[in-house]
Automatic annotation (TrEMBL):
NCBIfam families: asd_B, PRK14874.1. It catalyses: L-aspartate 4-semialdehyde + phosphate + NADP(+) = 4-phospho-L-aspartate + NADPH + H(+). GO terms for biological process: 'de novo' L-methionine biosynthetic process; diaminopimelate biosynthetic process; isoleucine biosynthetic process; lysine biosynthetic process via diaminopimelate; threonine biosynthetic process. This is Aspartate-semialdehyde dehydrogenase.
Length: 329
């Protein structure tokens, strides 16, 4: 497979390359792509050196698959050009996610909707992926009525500038700000910009993308997305009301038997998911599984995942794996 990694020099792009190598994705030719300022830079992949190329050069090289993590504007402009050249694009930005003609895919949940005709495929938002990974099997069994989610999101979701801001603040240095406020010793209840309804884009992604992936607009979702000074991954406190009742032991067993999910749930041994543990791993970790005693048919869970891996790069690579395995590229 000839594979282009668009945004190869960015935070997610670097993880994308790592995951492609770790999973031994069948690459015959790698095309690292970035903005003009990075053209000519060398990157290393599986012991070989590759020169970064610009967008048009990459289009002309007619890759089989292009995995994008280069922001919405770049995706909007260039994904159609790659697709027109015959390349299948897997895009990690929000540009195509809510486009009714584009598929929004978490392979363990809905890869089967993919066909050869899908030339631009959307990777969901990191906080959506980890939540639906845990909720999809439970929705199938108990039929979700309503989800209330609060997220505690890693600064790596914002990018290198945010990581630098935290490092500077920790060292007592006044540097460039990724956020309106200090993030060290703080929690900022704003991820991305506010929409008309007073919710942030990040919160509305959790609402809209969850309904699209689970193919059920009747599922009520409300979210609060918070940025915290953490680097290993996103954490989410999820309260989910079902149409039908459940046994907590059965919920634990369903999750335990779901590919891509690791249940870490034993309060006697203080076992529960944490970003410190999830960092660098591809699974979604679920714990603190307990009945919400304040209302019937309702469950509380704590969900943690490395937002750069299953939240972005790994999910995209798994989509690519599905395409290859099912001869859709
Ligand atoms: C964030 N999910 O965490 C968004 C974009 N990666 O900021």
């Amino acid at each position: 497979m000839k594979v282009a990694v668009v945004g190869a020099t960015g935070m997610v792009g670097e993880v994308m390359l790592k995951v492609l190598a770790e999973r031994n994705f069948p690459i015959t030719e790698l095309i690292p792509v970035a903005s003009e300022k990075s053209v000519g830079k060398e990157i290393e992949f599986k012991g070989n050196k590759y020169k970064v190329v610009g967008m048009q050069t990459a289009v002309d090289m007619k890759a089989d698959i292009a995995v994008f993590s280069a922001g919405g504007d770049t995706s909007k402009e260039w994904a159609p050009k790659f697709a027109a050249a015959g390349t299948t694009v897997i895009d990690n930005s929000s540009a195509w996610r809510m486009d009714p003609t584009k598929k929004l895919v978490v392979p363990e949940i809905n890869a089967s909707i993919l066909t050869k005709d899908d030339k631009i495929i959307a990777n969901p938002n990191c906080s959506t992926i980890q939540m639906v990974m845990a909720l999809a099997p439970l929705h199938k069994k108990y039929d979700i009525k309503r989800i209330i989610v609060s997220t505690y999101q890693s600064i790596t979701g914002t990018g290198v500038k945010a990581v630098r801001q935290l490092e500077n603040e920790y060292a007592g240095i006044q540097g460039e700000m990724a956020y309106k406020y200090p993030i060290h010793r703080n929690a900022i209840p704003q991820c991305d910009v506010f929409e008309e309804n007073g919710y942030t884009k990040e919160e509305m992604k959790l609402v809209r993308e969850t309904q699209k992936i689970l193919e059920d607009k009747t599922i009520a979702v409300t979210a609060t997305a918070v940025r915290v000074p953490v680097v290993g991954g996103h954490s989410e406190a999820v309260n989910v009301e079902f149409e039908n009742d459940f046994e907590v032991s059965e919920v634990r067993s369903i999750l335990h038997n779901t590919p891509g999910i690791t249940v870490q749930d034993n309060i006697d041994t203080f076992t529960y998911p944490m970003p410190l543990y999830a960092e660098g791993k591809n699974d979604v970790f679920v714990g603190r599984i307990r009945r919400d005693e304040s209302q019937p048919n309702t469950l509380n869970m704590w969900i943690v995942a490395d937002n750069l891996r299953k939240g972005a790069a790994t999910n995209a690579v798994q989509i690519a794996e599905y395409l290859v395995e099912n001869k859709l590229v």
